[in-house]
Amino acid sequence: MNAPAHVPLVVTTRGGLVECVHYGSIAVVDTNGALIAGVGDPTSVNFTRSALKPLQALPFVEAGGMSRFGFTSQELALMCASHGGEQVHVDIVTRMLQKIGAREADLQCGCQTPSYYLATDTPPPVGARWNQLNHNCSGKHSGFLAYCRMFGHPLKSYLDPDSPLQTRIRNVVQGLAGNDPIGMGIDGCSAPNFAMPLSRLARAFARIATDATPEMAALRFAMTRHPDLVSGTARTDLALMQAGNGDWVSKIGADGVQALGVKSRGIGFAVRIADGNKRALQVATVNLLKQLGLLTDEKAPLARNLRPTVRNFRGTVVGSVEAQFGVPRLR
Fold first, then answer.
1. Contact by Cβ (8 Å): 34, 44
2. What local confidence, expressed as pLDDT, does residue 329 receive?
3. Are 23 and 6 within 8 A, CB to CB?
């Protein structure tokens, strides 16, 4: 197996010296998949992780599931979400299950402490207990169940890689990957997940951002209209889509994946940090936006991630996090 030819994208410093180096790659493409700019190994195969979620929701939308179950853009946003497990998220997922006649016990995503607490640096309540509704992928899994319910497929086998649902998702992903091979693995929520060239993930988001088909338009509207549902308080995708003001459609993935499509430019990009470091991913993404001429307000909330400081437990500044790459400005 050939390892990707990643390059240093971000470093952390301490005392004026480089302490940590985060390797990765970047792909910027147009809607046809043509590479406009790249850093490192833009065609390297990487798992998409949760950046795949809009594509996993697409078969349900294409099949008319929204009208079949009376789903709104809020439900669709949750299908695309890595949500924070906040009450608003749990309430909408509960509503989805009620509409399709399913239960929390039918979900197979597992349980986790809501990511809201980590994102906000808030300790969870003492003695709190969580169920599968709180899992960040519960909206996606509810969408899976809805697809199966619509076609009469067994609910218990909805995560089987050879089930009708997962086969359809794989075909959708393969269609967007073109002639490039895709790999498969099992994600943290137990759903099949796919690896594809980074440039193809970027193309998928360029398509989501610009495609005029009703299905893609529905995905785009749901995600940009409800970034708080796709993401959550103090989360990356919420900040990015708020900054984009309807022009940027964004989805993060675990272990260092960020994909974003820009409607006004007709482009998409994907960033991969090889060691999965979230702070490095944020810095790389925001610096890429600036270099592409998309982040022009130095006082915007996102700008704090251009070169954030590193502080110790007393609050003393001891270093910084800095981008180490350059891309040509787009035409």
1. no
2. 58
3. yes
